[in-house]
TrEMBL record:
One Pfam family named in its UniProt record: Phos_pyr_kin
Taxonomy, superkingdom: Bacteria
GO biological process, one term: thiamine biosynthetic process
GO CC terms, sorted: cytosol
Protein species of origin: Moritella marina ATCC 15381
Domain Pyridoxamine kinase/Phosphomethylpyrimidine kinase: 22-270
UniProt EC number: 2.7.1.49
One example GO MF annotation: hydroxymethylpyrimidine kinase activity
Protein name: hydroxymethylpyrimidine kinase
Length: 279
């Protein structure tokens, strides 16, 4: 079959998400694909685990066999021009090692790691023994990691921040993780009027602020934000632009979340609040 002419077409920004599947559709691979698509890129995926999950929580996790994770990654990297990779849920040390080895092998231009350890519901999604493997094998390869406050505490051994001053006190420890940049998300400080994040570089940091939205429908916010950032990086934005646009996107998706009526627990954000237009 003859391929269509590509003379007048622009390269398609392709983003790979490596993460777990959420059977409820609100987080994980499903949220990633929605966010990448809604922000104007093409999404491909490699599934690391299958969760039995809904808006009320996670009831079971089945890690994908290592050989098949390898096969998925070889399949997409060998054929698709993947510019950015977003990594989410990695259930154990061996999966982390496989993913890190493939990132080193194929060398995508951008890597965003959402160190998924604790779901919004409080369920533990990463074995505690795997945290050190994550820190030594994968995080040093990342252009950006996007921990929430419990994840930041788990990565650094610091106490869980209860205010913005505590977030600031965590900056030094986060810089010691040997990553290029950290987006520390302050969404768990629910008593604050704004939802403030810290974009932390080795030599400076910036405060990113947005009005806090009063909604219970926040399932998949971390997955969605990190995927949107990877999408904007793939489109040629620099890191600060990609993070700023990603925060604007997730803020709007949360603001429109109550337009959806999904499940009886923490519902998903509204990924397609603007149709398929680039945000």
């Amino acid at each position: 079959m003859k391929k269509r002419s590509l003379e007048n077409s622009q390269p398609t920004p392709i983003v790979l998400t490596i993460a777990g599947s959420d059977s409820g559709g609100g987080a994980g691979i499903q949220a990633d694909i929605k966010a990448i698509s809604a922000t104007g890129s093409y999404a491909c995926s490699a599934i690391t685990a299958i969760t039995a999950q809904n808006t009320q929580g996670v009831s079971a996790i089945f890690p994908i066999p290592l050989e098949h994770i390898n096969n998925q990654l070889d399949a997409v990297f060998s054929d698709l021009n993947i510019v950015a990779v977003k990594v989410g849920m990695l259930a154990d040390s061996e999966i982390i090692k496989v993913v890190a080895a493939k990132i080193k092998q194929y060398k995508p231009t951008f890597l965003v790691v959402d160190p998924v350890m604790v779901a919004t519901s409080g369920d533990l999604l990463l074995q505690e023994s795997a945290i050190n493997t994550l820190k030594s094998e994968l995080l040093p390869l990342a252009d950006l990691i996007t921990p929430n406050l419990p994840e930041g505490a788990a990565l650094t051994g610091a106490a869980l921040p209860t205010c913005e001053d505590d977030m600031g006190a965590m900056i030094s420890a986060l810089r010691q993780l040997n990553v290029k940049a950290v987006l520390l998300k302050g969404g768990h400080l629910e008593q604050d009027e704004n939802s403030n994040d810290l974009l932390i570089f080795q030599d400076h940091f910036e405060l990113l602020t947005a009005k806090r939205i009063n909604t219970h429908n926040t399932h998949g916010t971390g997955c969605t934000l990190s995927s949107a950032i990877a999408s904007y990086l793939a489109q040629g934005n620099d890191l600060q632009q990609a993070v700023t646009r990603g925060k604007q996107y997730i803020s709007s998706a949360i603001a429109h979340a109550d337009e959806l009526d999904i499940g009886s627990g923490h519902g998903p954000v509204n990924h397609f609040f603007a149709g398929h237009a680039n945000v």
